[in-house]
Amino acid sequence: MSYDFDLFVIGGGSGGVRCARIAAGLGAKVGIAEARFWGGTCVNVGCVPKKLMVMAAEYGNTAADASGFGWGIMPTEHNWQALIEAKNVEIGRLNSIYSRLLAGSGVAEFNAFARFTGPHTLDVGGQIVTAERIVIATGGKPAAPEFPGGEHCIISDDAFFLPERPKRVALLGGGYIAVEFAGVFAGLGSEVDLIMRQTLPLRGFDEDLRTGLAEALTANGVRLHGGSAVVKVTAEGAVKTIHLANGETIQADLVFAALGRTAAVGGLGLESAGVALNDKGAVAVGDLGVTNIAHIYAIGDVTDRLNLTPVAIAEGHSLAEALYGKGPRKWDLDRVATAVFSIPPLATVGLTEDEAATRGPVDIYVSRFTPMRHTLSGRVRKTMMKLVVDQASQRVVGAHMIGEDAPEIIQGLSIAINAGATKGDFDRTVGIHPTAAEEFVTMRTRTRVAGVLAAE
After folding, report:
1. pTM to 2 decimal places
2. Which residues lie across from 29 on neighbouring strands?
3. How far apart are CA 345 and CA 406, in angstroms?
């Protein structure tokens, strides 16, 4: 059978664009459709604008800290509109880059919503196209609140376009988005309440990181309400009231529901192609993202596995090479580094202490200290660094950090850990002085043992 395209990609986010470009570069005839904005969530309503807003919040801290170094700089009232306008200009620039990259690769672009009408057939904005292979790369979307009064809340997509900064913000949730925006709003001058079901933020992260982040949020003026469940939200004029299961009520000008994300599969017509979903409502996939239909694939957040932009890019690249090249590039997704751009930021790679302890005895090295900058600024801020070392092999199986520059430092350690470096390799490395990063190669005294031996 003759098809319009060798490969058609549904979704113009980072993973979909990478897959389309690599496949086209390898000689495939490729089409791609995007209904909303090129670059997807990360570029438009995710990691990129979020980090710009975190940077804006940190500038206020820097100005306040400058007096400790002899500078007479004090922050003034923040201009929210100026920040949003500057952010919009930068996002527009990135949008155009994605479009130019696709055009330069010879990929056919469709600014339209695509849905399946059959296993090889798509309705793309009213135009019927066929493809030998199809990739679903539609990403995820913010989960809507399900409690009464959810209509009084915003979700993360809305936060990037608020006309003004609210004076009082209540954030619902304890994940990436909630803690990052808690830092943004608090740093720009808002009163912030963080309401979460867990007693500590960032479920699934290392416990020392979670504890350190809770301390940092509190030091930044964020009021934490751990172990709290929202019953409903009511509104009287501009004032919103959050009603908690314990009877407590919290008032705010803005209620921001950051309650996780779900796979964006609505309206895709997956049933017309016979594509199966898993029990989480995401596209079920096997190796290289193949679905239960042999010629249909899914990559990135729509599969709800490891929801990180670089992972989606790696999956898209590998799939294109597997289909049209000499074989897939090898990526190790078992030890992927990740960062949370809280204030201060944290980053992690490899196993948490609890995860490693289930596999056998591990040596734990922990260091906590006040960064050099804040010995003069007077700001209450601690850095925590941690290594998790398999006791039998002495391989470093996890590295965790909260503190300034944590993402930049952990990115470098990620290479060492993925290469199988041992604690001895770390110990033999001469540090750069004076830096925070040198602490990772000077931790000589074991803090504790976890796992089998710890119980003996």
Report:
1. 0.95
2. none
3. 6
The residues facing 32 across adjacent strands are 9, 109
Q: What pLDDT, in 10s, does the model give residues 20-56?
A: 999 999 999 999 999 999 999 999 999 999 999 999 9
Say if CB 224 and CB 218 are below 8 A apart.
Answer: yes
Choice among 78, 152, 243, 433 that is catalytic: 433
- Can you name the residues that pair with 233 across neighbouring β-strands? 242
CA dihedral 373, 402, 409, 313 (to 10 degrees): -140
Q: Tell me the three state secondary structure of residue 426.
A: helix
pLDDT at 456: 46
Q: What is the pLDDT of residues 323-340, one digit of tens each?
A: 999 888 777 777 899 999
Whole-angstrom distance, CA of residue 136 vs CA of residue 291: 10
63, two tokens: 């100005």
Structure tokens at 97: 């880059």
Q: Which of 139, 110, 135, 129 is nearest to 44 (CA)?
A: 139
List helix spans (H) across 197-243.
207-219
Backbone angles phi, psi at 327, to 5 degrees: 130, 160
- Cβ burial of 416 (10 Å; 0-12, 13-18, 19+) is middle
332-354 per-residue burial string, b: 16 or more CB within 10 A, e: under 16 = eeebbbbbbbbbbbbbbbbbbbe
Q: What tokens appear for 379 in the block?
A: 């700001």
The whole-number pLDDT of residue 327 equals: 84
Q: Please, are residues 309 and 297 in contact by the beta-carbon 8 Å criterion?
A: no
152 a catalytic residue: no
- Positions of the chain with pLDDT lower than 50, given as ranges: 455-456
Give the pLDDT confidence score for residue 243 in this predicted structure.
Answer: 98
The full set of domains in the chain, from first to last, is 5-142+262-324 (3.50.50.60), 150-259 (3.50.50.60), 344-455 (3.30.390.30)
Query: Are 309 and 47 contacting, i.e. CB atoms less than 8 angstroms apart?
Result: yes
Residues found in the chain: 456
The per-residue b/e assignment along 130-157, b for 16 or more CB within 10 angstroms, e otherwise, is: bbbbbbbbbbbbbeebebebbebbbbbe
